[in-house]
Amino acid sequence: VLELHVPHLDDPSIEGVLRAIGSIGPSLIAFAFSFLTLSVFWVNHHHFFHELSRTDGRLLWYNNILLFWLALIPFTTAFLAQNPMVPGVLMVYNFVLFMAALFFMFMSRYALFSGCMLHAHLSDEEKKEGFRHNLIGVVLYGLATAIAPFLPFASAIAMVVVPMYYITPRLLHDHDDH
Hints:
This protein is mostly helical. The chain is 76% helix and 0% strand. The chain is built from 7 helices and no strands. The chain has helices at 14-23, 25-50, 57-71, 73-82, 87-114, 124-147, 152-173. It is elongated.
């Protein structure tokens, strides 16, 4: 778990409090961003499993591997908070997100195309659209991982774009509160 340590307060004035909070600013920002990213995975995971009529061992193992990669996010977040914009650290952070997105895609592909696990019948085009939707995160996180050593700022931007891509349609169009 990423630990947010209370900063030492040398000066009890408002300015001193703000300086103390500012001293842990990178950790707060990394924590907030990673919380947002995990929230996107959580919401999509919830919607995904809500649409299933059943599961099987293979699907559950895809899910366990996804959870493994998600469990690494606090570690990589702490690493990023202590070393912001370091290319290798951005690469590691984005690689973990890439692997999580990849296994979410594997899990959903299996349920959509191989497992016959959905409550409702979806057309082949609807299934393909769902698969393409998951593929966006895989591609962007993979790109962010690959470019981190050469273009760290672009890598950081890419890792911000992915959760925004998945949040925006849900906030604007999703009125279904499962």
